[in-house]
Amino acid sequence: MMNLHKSAWAEIRTEDLKNNIAVIRSQLPAHTAVCAVLKADAYGHGMTGLRNWLAEKHLVDLIAVGKMSELVKLTAASGSDGPKMLLLGPTETDELEACLAAGKVKPDRTVFSVTGMRQFGELEVLAEKRSLRLSVHIRTDGWNSGMGLSYEEFLRNEDALFSSRHLNVCGLYSHLYTSYSGDVEGIARELERFDAFQRQICPEHREKLTVHILNSSLVFLFPQYAYDMVRVGTAMYGLPSYDGGRLRPILRVCAHVFDVREVSDDAPLCYESHVEKPHEGSRKIARIMLGYWDSPLLLTQKEIRILIRGRLFLPADDICMDNLAVDVTGADDIAVGDEAVLLGDKGVSLEETLERNGISIARSEWLCMTAGRLEKIFV
After folding, report:
1. Which residues contact 290 (CB under 8 A, 6 or more apart)?
2. Which of 141, 179, 224, 292 pairs as cysteine with 299 (C-beta 3.0–4.6 A)?
3. 232: left (phi over 0), alpha (psi -120 to 50) or beta
4. Contacting residues for 202 by C-beta, under 8 A, at least 6 apart
5. What is the pLDDT of residues 105-114, one digit of tens each?
6. What is the CA angle 61-63-68, rounded to 5?
7. What domains are there in the chain, each with its CATH number?
């Protein structure tokens, strides 16, 4: 595909996205819902466009965001159609009250997270004040590390949680920070502990709950703990998730060459040059309008390659905010208008780029982070 109107863009490959969701669902019981995690601008894939595409295709059951500002942004873009949204971050009462007063959040289309009893009480007061009944998921924490109610605290307060007149406790979840550790036995022990906890909940209350603990990696390692829903971010985007190679990366970061010329070996190509005369006399430079502000975390790695006409080239010098100089010395066929690929094709695939830069799969989403000004095109 050639985008003639933009100097740089990111392609979202929808067939690969559909494949990934199908692969995820194949791991799960038929009744298990899939929640698409779109926090952090959908890990750089563009949260608004991705949310709208997923809603149009009816591929997921819930959309999750991490912060109130993300919830407000998607609410403004989504109207009243598509899946409800789950705010995974803690719901701060003053922030929510301001958003409700301004009409920036639709309470009937949103599920809020509660991470502590203080917060639960404050949210209950707000709901009563505004004559609302808000839906909430309770976050629990097996380690009592401050990211949710401990299992014991939940059980102590169970009756109070489910007797609220203004808060509908309809979900329960936890998150394992060890999920990408590779310690399968340790992860299994944590999941067994969560399972024992959720089985202690009163059956009448348990029937009202959507229980979820699996993230992208755990879907493939421990599908037996899928419960009522799974949360998938990296797996949906095709980042490594212990999936055995079944997932496909959906992102392709591209730009057009806008200038090709011979330059002297001492010509400045960036703010602070770090190249010490790599060629005698001159070198051939191709310029692309793709800088570290477009793909900030990828372009600050040391081992960057750029694919042009099926060949890999190196940056000619440090990357600037708005553009990149590529050393194409010896390549006589590189021309203005050629497509340059930074991520997403053979030679600059996600796996190759991870390996080249020594990045673990737990950090793989860093490579996908793109700035909002890099247009996302669904192909």
Report:
1. 7, 8, 253, 255, 299, 323, 324, 340, 342
2. 292
3. beta
4. 158, 162
5. 999 999 999 9
6. 155
7. 31-237 (3.20.20.10), 251-268+281-378 (2.40.37.10)
